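Researcher: Following up on the earlier apo prediction. This time include the ligand. It's magnesium ion, with the SMILES given after the sequence.
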Amino acid sequence: MKYDKVYTTPLNLRWPRDKEKILEEQARLSRRLSIAPLKRAPQYVAGVDAAFLGDKVIGAVSVYIYETGELVEEAYSVKEVTFPNLPGFLAFREGPAIIGAVERLKVVPDVIIFDGPGIAHPKGFGLASYVGLLLTIPSIGCAKTRLVGTYKEPGARQGSHSALKYEGESVGSVVRTREGASPVFVSPGNLIDLKGSVDIVLKCTGKYRITEPVRSADALTRKLKKAFEGDRSLGNA
DNA sequence: GCGACAG
DNA sequence: ATCTTGTCGC
Ligand SMILES: [Mg+2]
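Model: Understood. Below is the ligand-bound prediction.
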């Protein structure tokens, strides 16, 4: 279709003009990811999410103490939306605002959980991988639905999981975080492996399907959005 | 040409 | 993701 606005990637590549270059860039960056076990147990686990308001993106982050589940800090940032909504490129829309939020934190998270995939992506470079690579912070992709890959429905009990395969590789795990609810799609983003990702997601799961850190960030995202609606200085109204 | 398709 | 109140099922 046609675009009335100039959409750009954080690397000044324009859509749809530079479509091929953008795809090459995702593939190139994915090769720089490190999918390996976490060195030491995390102390701080963060959850991130984003919301949209007009042509603005609100990124939010909630940090918890991994062992106790205590909320210790939150932050957010607002950015301009610079990329259209197309499957495979979510990172270009949410990434900037999420990165901005994490950079405003006083504490540096040991691992970050995302509302979107890591390497379970067409080019092996989903939202969690993108942010995890740019910030050099271990990241976990925890998508609500499938982007790529095939799998067998996991068992009905909480904690059940099955492999998510794509192009012959086991890129993720389909995890039943809550009984009676649809499973979640876990895949490592950067600086962590699949096993460690699943362990952390389950450890951060409370009574809901979505991980507590991400739920918290999602809640913050909406509170902020509500507070910003009708705010001329933010560009809407 | 017809589906699939993160949030 | 977003637009939105009540309503069906466990
Ligand atoms: Mg989200």
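Model: Chain A has a mean pLDDT of 95.
Researcher: Noted. I'll compare it with the apo version next.
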